[in-house]
């Protein structure tokens, strides 16, 4: 019954006779892990060390130092230990009623007979006490030994009775850019870091009377009595990590929901801690964040945006703006294409910038619906411009890391452009450099399929994703897009300019075009053009435009092309 769910439980056998210990072990060892205690005092010590993993106690009544009756009485008076089922093992049949009154759930007579009956009674006792929710959960993470996410949530709920009179803190711990450890140091090193962190939070949970779990990937969960020094906790968890990685720095971040509201679900408590943790993602100066009213207000806003998103797509509240790109290496600067940027004209909240909803939709997976909407809107618009102005405007659209995991992504985007009567070459697909580094094998496979269908691939935010040079040379890309963080501080001969020149050299060696975004000044324009940048985008030329404003740029470009043709004919 327990084994059909592949859940491995631990039984504590308290028995001073070696023969009886061995007999009980033989009965249960195929399905359960076993720990032993030779007397009542040792049993209590074992429970204090391992109460979070012990599922049942098999208790001999007649033991030295502290007998079974005293153990039962002690466990009944402890809010945590009383939750652990106890089956009494004795030859004293007349003790049965007294043991039941002290909290025992079942009784096994000595000498032991009918092993299968004993096993069935043990299975049943565990199932009845823990409830089916815990039985069905997979208890321990195979890598770290921590409670898995589902079991952690169930067990935290199960243990709330024990902490009903004291405050609890929900803590989420994460590793900034953990994927880089796997990429640069190898997956074995990444696993070593996860195991080391897990060992540290296990120790903390034991010392503080809490629970530790793994939320998934590089996320860890702690549920402990309130009042800890969080910076000290983080230092304790981080000890020794750099030694594992040849002195490479590991940046941890922690989100805390203090003194949790017991009226909300355990999942919701840790959602709040996760909101706090995510609020400092990428910030290497702040390591701990506590959930507060501002985060609460943002959480409510996020929930509203999530609920309104489907209506927004249906009613075309999401508007596509087009920021022009200009080719700058010819005799004149000519309109090369555009980048599609989405804004949300919310009926109640007004015009929302993408940073107010894009990260939210990326986190919960809704971004794929929005991206598909933008691909379709852009394809329609490009097709209209081709008919209206006889002018081809390749437009860059975002492909998020969520999109990469979508089944048949290539077929999906190809169908969009076919339905709008444009060629795949009219959509440039932007994928961030960080997406490549997080799951390079999967993305390379998907991107190769997209290129085979005729789509051009832009690596967006080049220079921010920490790709190794070796990785860059193997990535299937057509265009490198320099991140605006590098462009904004360039001056003749300074470090940022030298970095840009290095990136230009990399692009030349890869034989791919370079687009610089965020260009605002004439100095930036001149330096980038001189360095060999192919295409420039930014306020220097134009802010993102609504359709009618962008069409004026198309008309102007057509007029200049016509003037060039006429001049050539006259010559």
Topology:
Blueprint: E1 9-14, H1 18-28, E2 32-37, H2 40-50, E3 54-60, H3 68-76, E4 86-90, H4 96-101, E5 106-109, H5 115-130, H6 132-136, H7 149-159, E6 168-175, H8 178-185, H9 187-208, E7 211-216, E8 219-225, H10 230-238, H11 241-244, E9 252-257, H12 266-278, E10 288-290, H13 293-314, E11 318-327, E12 334-346, E13 350-352, H14 358-364, H15 367-389, E14 395-398, H16 401-404, H17 409-419, E15 427-432, H18 433-438, H19 440-452, E16 456-462, H20 469-474, E17 479-482, H21 484-487, H22 495-510, E18 513-516, H23 522-531, E19 535-537, H24 547-570
Parallel strand pairs: 1-2, 1-3, 3-4, 4-5, 9-10, 12-14, 14-15, 15-16, 16-17, 17-18, 18-19
Antiparallel strand pairs: 6-8, 6-9, 7-8, 11-12, 11-19, 12-13
Helix pairs in contact: 8-9, 9-10
Task: Name its key features.
8-stranded mixed beta barrel; 571 residues; disordered N terminus
Strand line-up in the sheet with most strands: 11-12-14-15-16-17-18-19
Largest sheet: 8 strands, mixed, barrel
- SS elements, strand count: 19
Strand content: 15-25%
Rg result: 32 Å
What structural class is derived from the secondary structure elements? alpha/beta
Helix content: 40-55%
Query: Low-confidence parts, pLDDT < 50 over ≥5 residues?
Result: 1-6
Query: Number of helical segments?
Result: 24
Describe what this molecule looks like in 3D:
The structure is a single chain. This protein is of the alpha/beta class. Helix content is 47%, strand content 20%. It has 24 helices and 19 strands. The protein has an 8-stranded mixed barrel, surrounded by 5 helices. Strands 2-1-3-4-5 form a 5-stranded parallel sheet. Helix 4 links the parallel strand 4 and strand 5. It is elongated. The N terminus is likely disordered.
């Amino acid at each position: 019954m327990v084994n059909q769910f592949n859940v491995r439980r631990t039984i504590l056998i308290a028995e001073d006779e070696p023969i009886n210990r061995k007999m009980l072990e033989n009965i249960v060892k195929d399905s359960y892990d076993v720990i032993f205690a030779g007397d009542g005092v040792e049993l209590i010590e074992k429970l204090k060390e391992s109460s979070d993993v012990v599922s049942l106690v098999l208790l001999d009544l007649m033991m030295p130092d502290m007998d079974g009756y005293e153990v039962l009485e002690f466990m009944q008076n402890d809010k945590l230990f009383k939750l652990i089922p106890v089956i009494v093992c004795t030859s004293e049949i007349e003790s049965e009623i007294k043991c039941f009154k002290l909290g025992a759930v079942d009784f096994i007579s000595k000498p032991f007979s009918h092993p299968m009956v004993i096993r069935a009674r043990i299975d049943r006792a565990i199932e009845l006490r823990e409830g089916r929710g815990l039985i069905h959960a997979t208890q321990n993470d195979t890598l770290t030994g921590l409670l898995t996410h589902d079991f952690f949530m169930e067990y935290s709920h199960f243990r709330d009775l024990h902490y009903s009179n004291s405050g609890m803190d929900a803590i989420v711990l994460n590793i900034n850019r953990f994927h880089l450890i796997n990429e640069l140091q190898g997956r074995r090193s990444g696993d070593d870091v996860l195991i080391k962190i897990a060992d540290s939070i296990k120790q903390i949970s034991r010392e503080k009377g809490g629970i530790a779990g793994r939320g998934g990937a590089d996320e860890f969960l702690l549920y402990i009595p309130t009042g800890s020094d969080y910076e000290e906790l983080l230092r304790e968890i981080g000890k020794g990590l750099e030694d594992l990685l040849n002195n490479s720095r590991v940046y941890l971040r922690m989100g805390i929901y203090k003194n949790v509201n017991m009226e909300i679900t355990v999942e919701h408590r840790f959602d709040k801690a996760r909101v706090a943790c995510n609020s400092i993602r990428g910030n290497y100066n702040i390591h701990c964040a506590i959930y507060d009213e501002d985060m609460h207000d943002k959480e409510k806003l996020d929930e509203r945006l999530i609920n309104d998103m489907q209506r927004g797509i249906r009613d075309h509240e999401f508007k596509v703006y087009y920021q022009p790109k200009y080719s700058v290496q010819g005799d004149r600067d000519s309109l090369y294409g555009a980048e599609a940027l989405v804004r949300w004209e919310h009926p109640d909240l007004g015009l929302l910038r993408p940073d107010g909803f894009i990260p939210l939709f990326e986190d919960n997976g809704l971004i794929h619906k929005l991206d598909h909407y933008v691909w379709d809107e852009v394809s329609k618009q490009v097709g209209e411009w081709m008919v209206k102005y006889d002018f081809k405007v390749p437009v860059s659209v975002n492909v998020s890391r969520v999109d990469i995991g979508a089944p048949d992504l290539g077929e999906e985007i190809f169908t969009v452009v076919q339905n709008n009567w444009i060629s795949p070459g009219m959509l440039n697909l932007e994928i961030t450099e960080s997406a490549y580094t997080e799951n390079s094998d999967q993305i390379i496979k998907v991107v190769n399929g997209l290129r085979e269908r005729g789509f051009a691939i832009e690596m967006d935010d080049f220079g921010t994703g920490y790709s190794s040079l070796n990785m860059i040379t193997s990535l299937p890309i057509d265009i490198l897009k320099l991140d605006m963080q590098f462009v904004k501080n360039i001056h003749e001969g300074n470090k940022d300019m030298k970095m840009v020149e290095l990136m230009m050299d990399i692009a030349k060696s890869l034989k791919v075009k370079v687009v610089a975004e965020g260009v605002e000044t004439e100095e930036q324009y001149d330096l980038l053009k001189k360095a060999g940048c192919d295409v420039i985008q930014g306020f220097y030329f134009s802010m993102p435009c609504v359709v009618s404003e962008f069409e004026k740029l198309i008309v102007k470009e057509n007029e200049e092309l016509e003037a060039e043709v006429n001049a050539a004919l006259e010559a």
